[in-house]
Amino acid sequence: MHTLVSDGRPHPREVVRIAARRGLDAISVTDHDTFEGSLKAIAYARELGEDAPIVVPGNEVRTTWGDVLVYCPQVPPTQPPREPGELVDYSREHGCTLVPAHPYDTLRNGVGDRLRFFKRASLSLECFNAGALLPSVNRRALEAARREGLSCMAGSDAHILEYIGVYRTRVWVGETGDVVEDIVKAIARGRVEPLVAPVGLGLLARRLLWGGLRRLSPRL
User: Fold this and answer.
1) What are the φ/ψ torsions at residue 196 (nearest 5 degrees)?
2) The domain containing residue 185 runs over which residues?
3) pLDDT at residue 90, rounded to an integer
4) What does pTM read for this prediction?
5) How far apart are CA 7 and CA 215, in angstroms?
6) Domain tally for the chain?
7) 115 falls in which pLDDT band (50, 70, 90)?
């Protein structure tokens, strides 16, 4: 999910509130190249208390190969590097896991076949991205996951509130006492299951409208 910290419309507070209303047990705010959105979401979730979803610190890093999602047990003290090899080392150092985002979406900086490189840091792949305009984008990711022996995740890639939870991922966690760490480890081990439902044309149109407005006026 993205917020006004990067290229999303809602405030992190709104994301947490709507996610709670829609019954999501856990979310990750993955603003581009920053953990700031996650920090704000975590702070608000603490204020909301038991009704709030668990917030997994996240960041969508635009590497030199393309976009990669970074999920961490806690917010690291430094920003992730953009060079893929350094990013893998970074993920190991901080206990994070890496998931290539929309890997075959050439319009949105997918890493393509280089996704296999990130198997060193995760056995999960974003096979289903709710923002994909062409079905072939997700289909190719699914085929790659089967070919490479990876598990599939589904991401809402929400930039507007209406998109929160349209695609979801069930994560099979252990019981170490730290739920966030368990979620990150489960993703790394491929213990995930995508939950996908059709995205209506009206909802897709609203997402595209926001994307167009954002490009015309980046300060929105």
Assistant:
1) -120, 135
2) 12-214
3) 98
4) 0.94
5) 9
6) 1
7) very high
